[in-house]
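Researcher: I'm comparing several assemblies side by side, and this is the next one on my list. It has 728 residues spread over two chains. Same procedure as the others: predict the full complex and return the structure.
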Amino acid sequence: MDLSAQLALTVLMGVFLAAVAMALSRLEDWRTYTPLTSGGGVAGGESGYITREKPLGLTRWLTTVDHKDIGILYGIFAVISFAWGGLAVLLIRTELMTPAMDVLEGLGGEAFYNGLMTSHGITMLFLFGTPVIASLSNYFIPLLIGADDMAFPRINAIAFWLLPPAALLIWAGFFLDPMTGGAIESAQTSWTMYAPLSIMQTNPGVDLFLLGLHLSGVSATLGAINFLVTIFSERNEEVNWANLDIFSWTILTQSALILFAFPLLGSAILMLLLDRNFATTFFTVEGGSPILWQHLFWFFGHPEVYILVLPPMGVISLIIPKFSGRKLFGFKFVVYSTLAIGVLSFGVWAHHMFTTGIDPRIRLSFMAVSLAIAIPSAVKTFNWITTMWNGDIRLTAPMLFCVGFVSNFIIGGVTGVFLSSIPVDQLLHDTYYVVGHFHYIVMGAIAFAGFAAMYYWYPIVSGRMYQKTLARWHFWTWMIGSNITFFAMLLLGYDGMPRRYATYGDQGAPFSVLIQNLHIIASVGAFIMAIGTIIWLYNFVVSWYEGPAAGPDPWDLREYGMESREFEWHADRLETALTDGGSDDQSDD
Amino acid sequence: MDAQPGLDDQYRRSSSWPLFVALGLVISELGVLFGVIPISVGGLVLFIGAIAAAVSEAGYTDRPWRLLAGLGGLLVGVGVLIAVTQASALAPAAVIGVFAKGFAQPPNGVVVRGISIIVAGIAGIVLALVGPQLATTPR
């Protein structure tokens, strides 16, 4: 970079830092000089202003360290990411309705398709999946364990604020491509970023993408440390290990997994960046070998699957009893299974590498552990079913999504057991069968549980009730859409359709008509789900403003003997707000 | 827990610093990776400054300045380590000479990045020294 550009950047940076300093001094002065009552700011009667916990307007949201606000911010961020990842996949599915490259031709053809596919995977896992769980846990874990807030409220806010820039960096190639005339493109490494491909793509968009991913990992790690400390040390004295709720148990286990898995991803990404920019040879063919990347990536990557699925399992275990009128069947064994999955999840990573030519004896042990992890998962499934068995079942929207979860999880789980068998995997590896299997889990199960939780806790967050008919429409479009799409993918895999391809088969080749038809069916299912998502968004936004007041016990939990701490808190809050005549914002704890 | 969010007498549940800690980390990562000195220096100063302020606000230290100086010192150490990896030997002349490499033709990118981190560290230390004089609001 020449000197004048460096000077210009220096001036620009100086102006930026000066602006930051001015903004900060305004904020801090504003606080310091607001008159205090004697006795350290307790309500002394001077004005209502004194007792307020947060500033108003945009400043409130930019500076909040309240776990509930941060939960809402995570939720909004997750919805935006879900829209991005969803639009990407709709473009992908539209393209795949025909064998040739046609729909996306004008937008960049195969390269654009590869960028969309990479972005879809990373966005859904790191920018939607992890944050939507963080949204639920931030809002509800402190309420469920009776804490005033998270153990480290500022670190909680830092973890959130790392995510929007991380997302911008991950998506940067798409924005910068037209601005730089194609000099910086979207990353086309796929979400697994396999070397040597990811080293050979010299496009700086990949560096930005890797930086964004690194930052999202830092964010997840900060959040995990916070949850571990909060659940260990901030519990109300009435909450002990014996009566800790199941959602908190799963978040505790998930946080431990994050603590061991994400720093490793961060280190591996730094090594990849060094390979790309500083000529190191960690993952080159002549150096540490591309297989090293696969080992490091999947040592993180498979626990990541459980990082994403354990809290949703906790949500399901929490909600099913409420609408079955029974306690969770075998509570202790659900907890033990959670812990068992957490431990075993670190012993299965090489089942992603059965076809790489690694030592057969190593493959054997990974097959055995992969089969073994089905046991605790099945224990949970049986416990959910037995909880519902002979129960007083109420098919509310959250319960429908829970039942949908169990159904999809069984299909996703059983196809996973098949894949963990080495000979089956050797045939089906890198086909749509694998895509169908993990989408049954991530979309059919994890996203279903996310929506179950959103419907269940919507009355607490918004104070209102959603439109129940629309919620049922959302469920059925998703249940039908997801099964159409992902079952078609399983069949595509049996037909040998390889994953990741933008184009497929010559006309007239064996199975070519069948494969195109299955692709069309899968795309139709995706559009049905898109319609359901629009219904959900409309329902949540409109109900937020116009929905009927939910009241203190929207699910009649008291009537069924199913009281829980977060709804008791909600009822208390409503009562306090009524007594004080204040709004939620000022008296919400 | 009640003691902790008490970042400020006025707004118990807000803090100005987390947003800037995050921004600082993002900007410094970008600056260091792409070897752009102004961005990496600005980002790192913002990062360590906001950390020191947040730690002090949370009540872990009385004032932010000593921590800021410490973090600045840490950056100087890290920057020197990075630059010295490019020295041909550990002899004093070679170690000192390595800093010229960053601005030679062609420049050594690793040394440039090391220097940018050192400059950020020094800026942090300077800020910690002049900060108490400039600060008008008693904390």
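Model: For your comparison table: Chain B touches chain A at residues 1-2, 4-5, 7-23, 25-26, 29-30, 33-34, 36-39, 41-42, 45-46, 54, 57-58, 109-110, 137 (CB under 8 Å).
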